[in-house]
Amino acid sequence: MAAGRLLGLRPAPGRLHRCVGGLPATVRPTFPTGRAKFCRYSIRSIPPLGGVGRRVPRAAQAAMGGDLYALDFDGVICDSCGESSLSAVKAAKVRWPWLFQQVDAAMEEWIVEQMYTLRPVVETGYENLLLVRLLVEIQIPSVRKSSVADGLSIQEILENWLKLKPTVMDEWQEDRESLVDLFGRVRDDWIENDLSGWIGANRFYPGTADALKLSSSEVYIVTTKQSRFAEALLKELAGIDFPSERIYGLGTGPKVKVLQQLQKMPQHQGRTLHFVEDRFATLNNVIKEPALDNWNLYLVTWGYNTQKEREEAAAVARIQLIDLPDFSKQLK
Ligand SMILES: [Mg+2]
């Protein structure tokens, strides 16, 4: 099956059909999936002049023109907050089973609800696990192992996560790599055992799938998600067989480095560069890098950021706020 092949999972005949059949009409694939059909999509690519590594003549650069979009995935293309929160609860139960002995269904529901509010602070998926544990520690004093949980409010987590994160990781003696690995494994298990349930916990923001399909620009996905998950969602939720070499996922380096890589590619010379993000801090990192001065930067108004961050971004000359209808229009 397509999803299984993408994710390196066991084939599960009939699964994709059931899953796609259950999706709302707006996200149903409009044509058969499969790599052979990719030519029918309109993520059109101008072939590199002279091949990789050869310098593109200036006149040819001017003639090429066109736009290049580097798009974040979660919070720009895909609303994965429900999925990532549920995956985090599943993973936290594996990692700290004793922590959940006193967590009942009502508290679990409360945790998932708070995760929606806290989503803007999450840069990489594994942080969801830390937030889940912190929320449990706030609620249940007897399981508390961090010095910060007592009396901590959701607002304080939102405002101070960058300081709280290293503190709790240290106090819980956790390391990033094993949490990243666990989070990935829990997702893989969920996908393998309940593909339609996993896909159903995600949704594409209205219009983004069509905008991707119809885009006449060079489009790349630059995400902190593991590439295989982004690729699977593009395929299964939107019917887009997005080329894997155009997805820069977790492990391909910081976004500022990926943007530098993209702008250096000979086939991208002369293009107008656009980077679309929902995380204000990531855009600020781009601004700090003089080599990225040519990128147009956009903070989306529909993703995982706060009103306060949008107001701050509006005051930064380099950043444009963009709403969903304008984004779809611009990408097409
Ligand atoms: Mg994002």
Structural write-up:
The chain has 332 residues and is α/β, with parallel strands linked by helices. It folds into two domains: 16-78 and 203-331, HAD superfamily/HAD-like (Rossmann fold), CATH 3.40.50.1000; 81-196, no CATH class. The chain has helices spanning 2-7, 15-21, 58-64, 81-95, 105-118, 127-139, 154-171, 176-193, 195-200, 208-214, 227-238, 255-264, 280-287, 307-314, 324-331, and strands at residues 67-71, 78-79, 203-204, 218-222, 247-248, 272-277, 295-300, 319-322. The strands form two sheets. Strands 5-4-1-6-7-8 form a six-stranded parallel β-sheet. A two-stranded antiparallel sheet has the order 2-3. β4, α11 (227-238) and β5 form a beta-alpha-beta unit. α4 (81-95) packs across α5 (105-118) and α10 packs parallel to α15 (324-331). The two termini are 31 Å apart. Mean pLDDT is 83; it is low at 1-63. Bound molecules: magnesium ion. Magnesium ion binds next to loops.
Whole-angstrom Rg: 21 Å
Q: Give the oligomeric state of the chains in this entry, treating copies of one chain as homo and distinct chains as hetero.
A: single chain
Give the termini separation.
Answer: 31 Å
Tell me which ligands are bound. Answer: magnesium ion
Individual helix count: 15
CATH topology of the largest domain: Rossmann fold
What fraction of residues sit in β-strands?
5-15%
CATH level-4 homologous superfamily of the largest domain:
HAD superfamily/HAD-like
- 3D shape: globular
What class, by secondary structure content?
alpha/beta
Total domain units: 2
Order of adjacent strands in the largest pleated sheet: 5-4-1-6-7-8
Helix content: 40-55%
Low confidence ranges:
1-63
Instruction: Give average pLDDT, whole number.
Output: 83
Q: Which H/E pattern describes the elements?
A: HHHEEHHHHHHEHEHEHEHEHEH
Examine the secondary-structure arrangement and name the CATH architecture of the largest domain: 3-Layer(aba) Sandwich
Strand runs, count: 8
CATH class of the largest domain: Alpha Beta
Largest sheet: 6 strands, parallel
GO biological process, one term: SNARE complex assembly
GO cellular component, one term: lytic vacuole
GO molecular function: SNARE binding
InterPro entries: HAD-like_sf
